[in-house]
Write a structure and sequence with these properties.
This protein is mainly beta. It contains 2 helices and 9 strands, in the order βββαββββββα. The strands form 2 sheets. Strands 1, 2, 3, 4 and 9 form a 5-stranded antiparallel β-sheet that branches. The protein has a 4-stranded antiparallel β-sheet with strand order 5-8-7-6, with no helix packed on it. The longest helix has 6 residues. The two termini are about 35 Å apart. The structure holds zinc ion.
């Protein structure tokens, strides 16, 4: 039965994937667990989700996703210049070092050091894959109908304690 199912909205899809950017693997489920998500709920990036419709278990595909359908284009406003002396001493001030910054409201944001000047450090708050074309190699490992509860919540519920987004439950 399940091998007749094709990916459509309202299904839980289990998928192996490898993400290539600029010819290099940046993420893969190889060696770990495949990802599981509710198709049609925006659980994965839109440019990938839209290419999965109609695939069956065992099907594989190369999906190219333009940056605007992936992690977005580089936002020139998402940079901030911070005086060097505001960084704790244990943070190496070198380009591409990743760090977390707390804003005025207490939210933690991920940033990367973009440029280091004599007095100013330029931080980049864009997603590391912003502006990048993505290439996914995907293989559908499983498809099942979502439960009522999953549809209501808009995400997959695992066998284990994976419903971590449901603090309000
Ligand atoms: Zn839930």
């Amino acid at each position: 039965m399940s091998d007749e199912m094709k990916v459509q909205d309202g299904q839980i899809v289990t998928m192996d994937y490898t993400l290539w950017v600029d010819g290099e693997v940046v993420d893969t489920s190889d060696g770990t667990d495949p990802i599981e998500f509710l198709q049609g709920a925006g659980n994965i990036i839109p440019g990938l989700e839209s290419q999965l419709y109609g695939m069956a278990v065992g099907d594989s595909k190369d999906v190219w996703v333009a940056s605007q359908d992936g992690y977005g284009d580089v936002d020139e406003d998402a940079f901030a210049e911070v005086p060097r002396n505001q960084f704790p001493e244990d943070i190496p001030l070198e380009p591409s070092v990743e760090l977390q910054v707390r804003d005025e409201t207490g939210d933690v944001m991920n940033a990367r050091i973009d440029q280091v000047g004599e007095e100013i450090v330029r931080l980049d708050f864009n997603h590391p894959l912003a502006g990048k074309q993505l290439r996914f190699e995907v293989k559908i490992a499983g498809i099942r109908q979502a439960t009522e509860e999953e549809l209501e919540h808009g995400h997959v519920h695992g066998e284990h304690d994976r419903d971590y987004e449901d603090e309000e439950d």
